[in-house]
């Protein structure tokens, strides 16, 4: 829905979309829009304020929704791959010699 000042509001179900995804999306699109995020019952209401009048409302809404979906998927991938990343880091750091076999810092003071 568009407003008189050029702002438009999109709503997202709080059960499906995390606030973090909305905030990251707002940051990613900061060159084109500023975003006000408010809780409205079971939804987040995101009011987009365009910085440039050349871009259509429909295009900005579409891009913001796409960015939100991207951020949701990034968070899901991070959660699903966390055990593997931790294993890779543990293996990498175990080969540095910074920690001895007993888990203490290498060398003594």
What would you say this structure looks like, in words?
The protein is built from two helices and three strands. The termini are far apart. The chain has a single domain, classed as Alpha-Beta Plaits, CATH 3.30.70. A hairpin with a 2-residue loop joins strand 2 and strand 3 (43-50). The longest helix is centred in the last third of the chain and has 38 residues, at 57-94. Helix content is 44%, strand content 20%.
> Measured on Cα atoms, how large is the radius of gyration?
21 Å
Overall 3D form: elongated
Largest sheet: 3 strands, antiparallel
Taking pLDDT < 50 over at least 5 consecutive residues as the criterion, the unreliable ranges are: none
Distance between the termini: 66 Å
Classify the secondary structure makeup into a structural class. alpha+beta
**Largest sheet: spatial strand order:** 1-3-2
CATH class: Alpha Beta
**Overall CATH architecture:** 2-Layer Sandwich
The overall pLDDT average reads 88
Relative strand content? 15-25%
Number of strands: 3
Q: With helices defined by DSSP (H or I, 4 residues minimum), what is the helix count?
A: 2
Please give the share of residues in helix: 40-55%
Order of helices and strands: EHEEH
């Amino acid at each position: 829905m568009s407003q008189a000042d050029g702002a438009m509001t999109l709503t997202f179900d709080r059960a499906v979309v995390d606030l973090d995804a909305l905030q990251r999306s707002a940051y990613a699109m900061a060159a084109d829009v500023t975003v006000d995020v408010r809780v409205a019952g079971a939804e987040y209401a995101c009011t987009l304020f365009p910085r440039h009048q050349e871009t259509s409302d429909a295009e900005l809404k579409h891009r913001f929704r796409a960015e939100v979906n991207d951020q949701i998927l990034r968070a899901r991938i991070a959660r699903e791959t966390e055990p593997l990343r931790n294993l890779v880091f543990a293996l990498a750091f175990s080969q540095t010699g910074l920690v001895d076999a007993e888990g203490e810092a290498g060398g003594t003071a």
